Amino acid sequence: MVSGLLVALVLAVIHATLVIHVRHTLQASAWEGARLASYYDTSLSDGIELTRRLIIQGVGPGYAQSVDARPGTVAGQPGVVVTVSAPFPAVGLWSLGGELRVEAAAALEQPG
What we know:
There is one protein chain. The protein has helices spanning about 1-35, 45-60, and strands spanning about 65-75, 75-85, 100-105. By secondary structure, the protein is α+β, with helices and mostly antiparallel strands. The protein has one domain. A three-stranded antiparallel β-sheet has the order 1-2-3, with helices on one face. Strand 1 (about 65-75) and strand 2 form a beta hairpin.
């Protein structure tokens, strides 16, 4: 009886760790995409493409389906906001529904 509870607890910890890993990977990828898109000589599509590539390398192509970049503000300054919406990993990396959504922003680089 105790071993069954222990196995369930270990599996729950492993799954929580996986969900945290996926979220952090999405967040870091969005931040890198926003940072690239905020450079003076790049565009929003450059940031979207980098974000997608990093997500595919980190957790797989199923999580890079919905990536969006738009102009925004960061601490009152003009900037870029990258938003990633991905399926929530409910059973391993498979989703049974739900959405994991992260945003990252970077201020625009000023020329000169």
